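Take a look at my tokenised protein here and describe the backbone shape.
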Amino acid sequence: MDSVFALVGDGYAIVAADASAARSILVFKHDEDKIMELDSHKLLVGAGVPADCAHFNEYIQRNLTLYELNNDIKLSTHGSANYIRGELATALRKGPYQSNLLLAGYDAQDGVSLYHMDYMASLSKVNFGAHGYAANFILSVFDRDWKKGMNLQEGLEVVRRCIHELRTRFLISQPVFILKVVDAAGTRVVTL
């Protein structure tokens, strides 16, 4: 029942996720933050089985912190994406995580980047992406409205259109979305 999506603009990335915690026909709450801050300049969001998403995201966060403590250097967003992909691939052969992920980050050298991963451990660098039921509705909005070099206000407008599309066309009510931005200043929560 998750709807998560993200886009890259001029020096920033916006990550959005619905805030509903649901199972079967029951909604438990509408304030679940599904977007994890891996460090000061990386955001990871997952869609899938809630236990798998929570466990895997925490596992990744702790291991990236351990890597930084052991080596006195943070992994780049590209390096983190490849590490995550490797962990998904290893788990695939043992006990797979049913978790589809979007990783957004900012690096001083490379700027902002967004990576799309699925539970089969495929990895691709993208300008926008979506997982969960949202992908069925909003990829067309991204295809139509996303353009290279958008400023933050234009990016938020595209997100606003995506959420409007979900509220108009999607059968299941997802009244609350949490949005976070990552850029040179770090990560922060934004509102529409």
